[in-house]
């Protein structure tokens, strides 16, 4: 099955079948010229692309890619094909088809985890995570089973988060759940809004979670006090990090530890959009402090920890897709803190960044007509 599956992922098959933390207010390093840093290739155009995941093939790069409106794409150098069979999504505002990650046994099963927003009663909605298993050759619709839901569903179309990460040992699925622009649920352990969740691969709460004794939804929670996480990644040491949108100021990169409270909406390094102030993180040393925060914001889309294959000098650093600053932001990790090193303007809001098997960077522009770019060393 493994050899047949990997063969089906090939382009030929597609043709046949598609210091410490930077203090708030400090100036970042001067923006570098994108032309000086990278060779840029345009590989395709998509409608509101949101996430992508490379497939484990040994030939030309192949990836699955989500569009917020609800379409799952299969990309290779040979072309792009729609993969049908996913349930309808509730697309609008910040919501729609979201993240995609490969299951640990993908090579044998063709299983992936996908997140999206589904409608509820009376104008409510919430994110879900499903496990989808595709047939051999990707010719038939997948078997799809929802394994997790944001609880409760609420009104509005913002702060779903629904980013995912598989633990390095392949045993757990971590899910970021936004507080849905409702503020206070992030501090309430009876729901899963404004939290990072640690689940078994079938979506059930993992044993040993910090609030397991409370039972119910509380048993899913790994950390809380989050606003809108749009990046969730493990570093080479196996540590989990979350990249989070602040309000008017106060974007954060956080090292996630079990049971800790990350402060929202009690504290932030930004203020509310209506101008009302929020106490700063440093005023509550009893709460988890960000590794780095930004004010003005960078408005992150996602991030990776870079392997160093093409740029050895960047090994272990975070490369951030930035919506607000329209480019990439490079951050060096210093223990449990972080320092911004450089910015690379691309002239468009950048939603997603992924590292290809050869070490090149694939980035997705945000919005309608968003291009897929390959960045390589000049």
Q: Describe it for me?
A:
The chain is mainly beta and 378 residues long. The protein has a single domain (2-18, 20-376), classed as TolB, C-terminal domain (Neuraminidase), CATH 2.120.10.30. Helix content is 6%, strand content 41%. The protein contains four helices and 24 strands. The chain has helices at residues 2-8, 11-16, 34-37, 106-109; strands at 39-47, 49-54, 62-67, 72-76, 79-83, 97-102, 111-119, 125-133, 143-149, 161-166, 172-177, 195-200, 221-224, 228-234, 240-245, 251-256, 292-294, 300-305, 318-322, 327-334, 337-345, 350-355, 361-365, 368-376. The protein has a four-stranded antiparallel sheet with strand order 1-24-23-22. Strands 2-3-4-5 form a four-stranded antiparallel sheet. A four-stranded antiparallel sheet has the order 6-7-8-9. A hairpin with a 5-residue loop joins strand 14 and strand 15. The longest helix is centred in the first third of the chain and has 7 residues, at 2-8. It is globular and about 55 Å long.
